[in-house]
Design brief:
By secondary structure, this protein is an alpha/beta fold. The chain has three helices and five strands; from the N terminus they run E-E-E-H-E-H-E-H.
């Protein structure tokens, strides 16, 4: 079809990436968040979709949403929960960056508009890069957290900040 001029050209979108090609290394809470969706099958129900937002510094799950349809609303519910949990005073002063893949939900106009309203900078991974936004378990001990789980690490941060005051 291409040789006969019958194919339609494929439009390629350029990913909105951070300035570096390597994965960002956060230095504080609420600097870099990651979000992603997974699906799993439940006998008698069918496929369920889970969207999670995590803080890359503490590895803590800040927001999640579970549903039977992989719609933008599911992603927005997880995002709003994350903002409510991590930024009770509002996200505008936190300078949050949110990394996601290039799926249709996190790149939808509605999702992008909400991120802009919340002053959250949205950065997408490069195409076919599964590991760029993949830190998603809050109970698992991470080597990046000196062998502590995200919950234990965050508790130690809170103790350190309390002791400093």
């Amino acid at each position: 079809m291409r040789l006969d001029g019958l194919s339609v050209p494929v439009k390629r979108y350029k990913a909105k990436r951070a300035e570096t090609r390597s994965k960002p290394q956060p230095t504080r809470r609420n600097e870099w968040w990651g979000t992603d969706m997974t699906k799993f099958y439940v006998q008698g129900l069918g496929w369920l979709y889970l969207v999670v937002v995590i803080d890359w510094y503490t590895k803590r799950a800040l927001g999640y949403s579970l549903g039977i349809r992989p719609k933008t609303d599911l992603w927005l519910q997880a995002l709003h929960q994350a903002v409510d949990v991590a930024c009770p005073a509002g996200s505008r002063s936190e300078h949050v960056h949110l990394m996601s893949d290039n799926g249709s939900q996190p790149t939808s106009t509605r999702y992008e508009t909400i991120l802009e309203t919340l002053s959250i900078e949205h950065v997408t991974t490069s195409y076919n890069n599964q590991k760029r936004n993949a830190d998603t378990n809050q109970d698992y001990p991470h080597s990046a957290l000196m062998g502590m789980s995200p919950i234990d690490f965050e508790a130690s941060l809170n103790q350190t900040q309390t002791a400093a005051v």
